[in-house]
Amino acid sequence: MAETEPADDTGYPQLPATSWAVLGMLTLGEGLTGYDLKKWADWSFGYFYWSPSISQVYAELKKLEAVGLVVSEQVCEPGERGRRVYRITECGTRAVRNWSRDAPVEQPVLKHGLMLRMWMGHLNDPDQLKSLVQAHIENMETLRGRAAVHADNATREPAWAFSQMSLKWAERYFRAEIELARQMLDDIDEAAETFASVREHDELGNPLPLVSGSWREVEDFVAGLEAGGRS
Fold first, then answer.
1. Is the dihedral of CA 43, 50, 120, 183 positive or negative?
2. So what's the pLDDT on residue 1?
3. Per the confidence metrics, is the pTM higher than 0.70?
4. Are 73 and 85 in contact (CB under 8 A)?
5. How far apart are CA 187 and CA 121, in angstroms?
6. Amino acid 2: pLDDT
7. CA 195 to CA 142: how far, in whole Å?
8. pLDDT value of residue 227
9. What integer pLDDT is reported at residue 231 of this predicted model?
């Protein structure tokens, strides 16, 4: 990794998201090991962003220390194995504050495994699709419950107020995801009824389009609408 320029009073270096997440956790006033950071990530922003692996955490800590955004010390206590504890520096605090305030707001990236399978739902019968949706609902119920428990237990430190707020958002998100999935159970029946009107199939049983390449017309139409909106 190239040497990162220290952040000035208003700027911030170019770092991956994992680095910013690590720095953010270190702004809550505690020295933490890589293992501590991993466990904290699992029950906090892991519910709405992602939880880095332990190897990612240690790799980022090494890079951040090399450029002066964190410092570490070996802590040894009687009868215990030594631990390397990391703390954020003044430069690191300034950088993550500037990034959290000034970085562009990006569109969230949605990679929904269940919806990819629903998109190709013509390959399966409606009952099978509904069983997948039901499994998804069960998963979301579990995540919603966990997020709610962590939000309820994030009140013990006033400094965690925004962490609790984010966990409450995650709980509402999972609740909304459950409602969307329940609605899709009816949508499957509607889609199956429409699909039943397909006139021809190839020798593999795959549907043949009424007009070959008509998906390009949709793409061009939407592109035209977006261009008109920008003019």
1. positive
2. 37
3. yes
4. yes
5. 11
6. 40
7. 33
8. 79
9. 60
Backbone angles phi, psi at 49, to 5 degrees: -125, -90
189 conformational bin, left if phi > 0, alpha if psi -120 to 50, beta if neither = alpha
Split the chain (231 residues) into runs of 10 and give each run's mean pLDDT: 52 91 92 93 87 92 96 84 92 96 91 95 97 98 95 90 93 97 97 95 92 84 78 60
Using alpha carbons, list the distances in angstroms from residue 198 to 112, 201, 202, 217, 222.
Answer: 27, 8, 11, 20, 25
Query: Which residues does 84 contact at the CB level (< 8 Å), separation at least 6?
Result: 33, 34, 72, 73, 74, 75
